[in-house]
Every structure is written in structure tokens, then in C-alpha cells.
Amino acid sequence: MQPFEYIRADGADAAIALVGRDPDAQYLAGGTTQLDLMLKDGVLEPGRLVDITRLPLRAITRADGALHVGALTTMEELAADPTVAERLPLVRDALLAGASPQLRNMATIGGNVMQRTRCRYFRDPTVARCNKRAPGSGCAAVTGVARMHAVLGASQHCIAVHASDLCVSLVALDAVVHVRGAGGERSVPLTEFYVVPGKRPDIENVLEHGELITAIEIPMLPVGAQSGYLKIRDRASYEFALTSAAAALVIEDGTIATARVAVGGVGTIPWRAREAESILTGATASSDAFRSAAEAAIQESFTVPGTAFKVGLAKRTIRRILQTISGIQP
Amino acid sequence: MEQGRSHATRPRPDAAGRSTVVDVTAQVNGNACRLRLDSRVTLLDALRDVLDLTGTKKGCDQGACGTCTVLVDGKRVLACLTLAAQCDGREVTTIEGLASDGALHPVQEAFVRHDGFQCGYCTPGQIMSAVGLLEEGRAGSDEEIREFMSGNLCRCGAYPNIVAAIREVAGRGSE
User: Fold this and answer.
1) Has this prediction a pTM greater than 0.90?
2) Is residue A23 within 8 angstroms of chain B, CB to CB?
3) Any idea what DSSP says for residue A32?
């Protein structure tokens, strides 16, 4: 483990300057990914760690039909928010399906967006082939033991999954990431924040070095929307998803007026299923429509022997959550 | 343990003159502690190796087992994934800080009464997590207790008795 300098930032601009000016510096928030990859796995070796956890970026406010969530709000704090509980059950369900209470007391919403993959080959520096860790070296997972890996947005270059539960619900809701850097502020829709790996799995998102996520804006669902998050995993709790799905429906007189669908556990990025939404929107709410939507959601998959089962499982996961939130059973 | 991974300070040749040492002042079980540490030292290692508070156990040391659970400012967290430096100005409570005036904490008593352990290694983490859970109001049903204790593994499988102990302290008796 390489030594590093620990600095507690006393303001957002100071933190941005400290990291932005130093290519060897990284931010520290909840630490549940950062410290794991630094102290335990030896994958990250920053020379300077800038602790941002005491910056005033922890408020949850509601305005203009959206929830504005400070980036340093913890997962438990957001899950306990009354507006989230009442109006955004797919966010609450996703939060409480993730990690453990201890980790959720530590992990922040900004950090959840920035979390790194759990791929064991990425997290083991003794494995030579990892295009995400060592660009151009290959991918050990494609020919290795794969199960907790991606089938969408994946290729022979990388099958590492983005393991967030929360972000699956957030892409379904068109959440927006607010970012501040040395050059000012900008906003990026979460659906455009992540970069599908292609030949450069080391490039994961559109952030420039030193840019700081200050808030996540979550647009509210229309009143009357039914929504939820379903996570399928190898044990009942405290486990990453094999597959998951977030969905929201507004059904008026039996017809689907609005549909949102996203899938998790299967994508190299949190995967918005717009093809499924197109099929659902305007259709009669029925198990046939749900089946067609699920088929459309999982296309152009890249599978290896260990992940082939996820194609069918993801479709059934989507059908199940649509059935659950609508109350329409086959 | 792999050589070269100890917490002994390994001076880093750094042209920028960066310090890899941190000063930390924290309340640990009600006692003010001032420590000068290598910045890499986790809260878990500071508790065990520097403050001799070995009640908090090191299990996986990677955030997966819950054995190192402590309270920081009243919230249950994992000491293995927390830097000691992050606890500056914070209040840390470990298993050693639960008893008052020689009397066990109600959760400790309930674990004894219900035989909520076998080998005992995970027990300090289980008890600290249970204290956090009760504070959060997550003991409404056995199902809820199981879900919100899922971050604490017990390889002896004492789960039924752990649930019974927590249920009792929550005031639901042996329903």
C-alpha cells in the first residue's frame, strides 16, 4: 500500500483546486469503494486523498418537480427521506436493496454514482489482463470465471458490470448529475454520464479530472405513477444483483400513458431500456405487453458461458416488476 | 500477511513535500484521544493496535463481514473501511464502551441470555450493529431484524438466537 497525503478540504472550491491541479490526487467521500481499492486491493494508488465528507453538500431539497440531493447525502439518509418514501419507491427500494446498513451509513449518493466495478479480475492487480486497469492488456473475465458480469454494453474487451442498484432507478427517472470544476458548473443527464466501454474500458464516465459531483437531481414521477425496483441475487440480502429492474408506469383507463424501464446487474453501465418503454407507451396494460417489452429490452447481448443465463433472467425480472407494480398478473 | 503491508511509516520520496502523517483527535468511548498516525491507518487498526481496544474484531478487513462494526457519531459503520483520519472530531463507540458502571448494555445481556453466539468472534460486531439497528427503529419484525442485520455474518450460524436477543430488547418478547 502506497503512502498518501490526507487532506480535509474546507470548501468545495478548495477541494476542486487540490485535486484538479494534481493528477495524482483523488477525492474521498464515504470511502467504501475508494479505500477498498486503495488499502485492500492495491488497485488505486493516489498520492493525495482529499476528504470532501465535511463539505456542505448534504441537503435534500424539493423544488420545481424534482428532488435535489446533495452529493454527500448518505444512502441511508436518502432512503429515509419522506418524499422518496412517498413518491419515489423505486429509489427507496433500490437504496435499501444495496449493500448493508453499515455501508449505507457511510456511502454517499455521489459516491454511489462513481462506484467502481466489482469484477474480481479488475480488483486483483496480480491478474495481468484487464483493459479497465491496464488499457490494452485484454480481459481475463471473458475467458475466466464470469457470473456477476455484464451482457449489455459488453464485448470481448470488457464485461465488468456497473453494480449500483440506485443508479438503475436513477437512469429510469432521467436523473441529472450536477458537476463543478475549475471552469465552472455543468449538468449532465445520468443517461449520458456513463460511457459504454467499447475498446476503452478505462474510460467510465464523462468527468474531467478534478470535477466534483455536487448534487443529483431526481425528477419526480407524475402523481399516480406506480413504481418499484426488483433485485434478483444469489442470497436473500447483502449481495450484488444477478439481475435487477426498475420500472414506473402511469396507467390511465387500462392504457399505459408513461413507462420507464431500466435494468441492472447486466450492463456495463446502468441500462435504460428505451425499446421496452416504446413498446409499453400507448399499449394496453397487459402481461402480453410486459412480455414484449421485456424481449425488446435485452437485445444485442454479449454473453460468455457464465453469463448466458442472465438474458432470460433479466427478461423475467422486467416482466415480474411490471406485473408487481401494475397488479396485472398473467 | 504479505510483507511490506504493515502500517510502519514508509517515507515516500515526494518532491511536493507531502505529509503522510495525520493528527487525529477523537472521543473514543467517552475518552479524548490524540493520535499521530500514518494516513493509511484505518479506524479498525487504530482501535486495536494503537489504543489496545481489541474488542473490535478484524474479519474480512474488506467491508464484507461486519465484524468490525462500531458507532461513529451514533451511526453504525465499518471500521475497516474508515480511515482513522476521517474520525477527527468524531465520537467513536466500540464494544468496550457499551457497559456503564460495570453493568452490561441490555443488548449484551440479551445476547448472553439467548446464547446469541458460539465462537464469539463476530459477536462484538453483531452487538454494535444491533445497538445501531435498535436506534434506527428497524426491529419491527423478525423479518426486518434479519434484513437490517444482514451486514453481519456469523459463520457459526447463531442467527436464530441473535434475532431472539434483538427481538427481546426491542420489547417484543418471545412472540
Assistant:
1) yes
2) no
3) T
